[in-house]
Structures are given as C-alpha cells and as structure tokens.
Specification:
Blueprint lengths: L2 H7 L11 E3 L10 E2 L20 H23 L3 H14 L1 H17 L6
Antiparallel strand pairs: 1-2
Length: about 120
Amino acid sequence: MSALAGIITEKCPKCGKGKVFAKKGNPLLFQMPRMNERCPVCSHKFEKEPGYFFGSMFVSYAVTVGEMIIFFLLAHLFIESFVTIVVLIGLLSILLSTFNFRLSRMIWIYMFDGKGRQV
C-alpha cells in the first residue's frame, strides 16, 4: 500500500492494516474525530509525545485554504455575488472541518512516522 492510499484510507503507517481513527466525527452533531491511542493490529503508538500533532494544524490550514481557493474559483463562474460566495465558503469550511482534521493528522503521521514500514 502506498503512502497516499494509507493517508486516504486512514490506515496505520507501520502495518498498513489498523485504523488510526476510532470515530470519524460529525460537524453537524458537534462531534470531533477520535483517534486510537495505538494501532489495533500492530500496537504502534500514534502520538509520540504531548504536542506531537501541533504541526498538523499548519497542514490543516494549508488544506483548508486550498479548498477555499478552488471553491472560490469554481463558484465565481456561477455566482456573481461575492457575499454569497463568502457565506458558501464559510459553510464549506464547517462541513469539511472533521475531514480536514483527519486528513491533516494522517498527512502529519505519514510525514514523520511513515518511514520504515514493513510490507
């Protein structure tokens, strides 16, 4: 399994089989995603130290800005009102918040912990 496939499917960077997230979360129900402390298959610890995922906030910021820019460019083709586009971008960022949270943490894990995986 490639790193990209592991990130998208949210699998352990070491074994490629265990799930990183126990709960995906739902922004409409005000539920945040919940990570497993360890891989259920290989017992690999995901959070190495307190504050390990601090840097994933910057990854999340970059992902969110990229989504907003793409949405703005597409919406600008069909919607003339700037205010409407800004409101839609705000709604989009709320709806994608849990997805971006999980994606940014998976990118972070694979950037710093995905090396040396046994296949």
